[in-house]
């Protein structure tokens, strides 16, 4: 089998972070989001992986993941051609690489608990033509939603229905045979002007193909919003092997390290600090006079001084020097947070806020 990962798009709900950073490179537990997806695909026995990216982003992706040798896999980077025409068109864009093969299609911004091995194994062992993964959600109208017959078999998949026929969402994990391309050439754009993956799945069902489905009983998250991204970061940290929480930097006498904490090479945790895990701190950071609370991920070359940070993702190069408590926040690349009371006038806030920013004072 091969695998195709969708890693394009513009992630407008995560701006301003995604003005300059592809969403799939946003760090979760100090590794790019897509890193965790590749981990799961390789663990399922698939080593030939294609990554679909926005035009002009091949080199930035290659810089992050290389040629796949880290995983003993082979990565191919493929630019999306023809612009954004829907999820189904992403697969059509890779037809020359996938035709003649069964393949896994994985939306790169999906984070799940546990492995995908059972989905791949069932698809293979039962000789299925299509395999879908469902998850129960509170807001199915935001997703593709399965409609069932009375006997529990699938009738069709509806894309973002106003009145969902079930409380299941079709997650971004799909398995197909090469009939996919017959399906694609049989459908047209929807009223949204996009080729819908739901129409592909309905084609498989209504054409009498062998379609299976499995419910994801653990945790699944589409990391499309800041809150979901922070939740995804926490999930990944909870799932890390405890052996990965190692201290390779310097922890001065008197510093308190509690729970699972990872400290990178060249990082210094000063004596007047409390770090309460799970926490991951990158390389060459300076943490002084500060409290770093649970579910915080700090990138490389970050300075945190006289501050409190909890349940947040801090990107590389950032500086935090404020007496205000920072919680449930995304702090972008090379961002600076300083205390207003250390400047004049002391009763004012000085802000430089870009498009689509969110600030709570």
From TrEMBL:
Name of the protein: Glucose-1-phosphate thymidylyltransferase
InterPro entries: G1P_thy_trans_l, NTP_transferase_dom, Nucleotide-diphossugar_trans
Alphabetized UniProt keyword annotations: Transferase
NCBIfam families: rmlA_long
Domain Nucleotidyl transferase, first and last residues per copy: 2-235
PANTHER family associated with the record: GLUCOSE-1-PHOSPHATE THYMIDYLTRANSFERASE (PTHR42883), THYMIDYLYLTRANSFERASE (PTHR42883:SF2)
Molecular function terms from GO: transferase activity
């Amino acid at each position: 089998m091969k695998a195709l990962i969708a890693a394009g798009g513009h992630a407008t709900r995560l701006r301003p972070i995604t003005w300059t950073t592809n969403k799939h490179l946003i760090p979760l537990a100090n590794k790019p989001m897509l890193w965790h997806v590749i981990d799961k695909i390789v663990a399922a026995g698939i080593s030939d992986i294609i990554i679909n990216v926005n035009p002009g982003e091949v080199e930035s992706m290659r810089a992050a993941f290389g040629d796949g040798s880290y995983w003993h896999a082979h990565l191919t980077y493929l630019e999306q051609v023809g612009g954004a025409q829907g999820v189904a068109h992403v697969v059509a864009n890779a037809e020359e690489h996938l035709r003649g093969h069964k393949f896994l299609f994985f939306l790169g911004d999906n984070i799940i608990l546990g492995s995908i091995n059972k989905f791949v194994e069932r698809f293979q062992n039962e000789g299925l033509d299509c395999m879908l993964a469902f998850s129960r959600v509170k807001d199915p109208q935001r997703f593709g939603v399965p409609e069932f017959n009375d006997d529990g078999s699938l009738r069709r998949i509806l894309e973002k229905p106003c009145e969902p026929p079930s409380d299941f969402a079709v997650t971004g994990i799909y398995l197909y045979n090469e009939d996919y391309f017959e399906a694609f050439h049989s459908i047209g754009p929807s009223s949204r002007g996009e080729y819908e993956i739901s129409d592909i799945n309905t084609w498989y069902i209504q054409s009498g193909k062998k379609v299976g489905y499995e419910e994801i009983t653990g945790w699944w998250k589409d990391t499309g919003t800041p809150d979901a991204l922070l939740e995804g970061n926490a999930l990944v940290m909870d799932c890390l092997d405890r052996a990965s929480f190692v201290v390779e930097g310097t922890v001065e006498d008197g510093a308190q390290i509690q729970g699972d904490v990872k400290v990178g090479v060249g990082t210094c945790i000063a004596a007047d600090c409390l770090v309460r895990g799970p926490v991951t701190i990158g390389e060459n950071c300076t943490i002084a006079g500060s409290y770093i609370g649970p579910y915080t991920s700090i990138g490389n070359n970050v300075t945190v001084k006289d501050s409190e940070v909890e349940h947040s993702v801090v990107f590389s190069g950032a500086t935090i020097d404020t007496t205000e408590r920072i919680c449930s926040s995304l702090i972008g690349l090379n961002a600076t947070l300083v205390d207003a009371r250390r400047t004049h006038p002391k009763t004012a806030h000085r802000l430089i806020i870009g498009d689509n920013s969110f600030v709570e004072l």
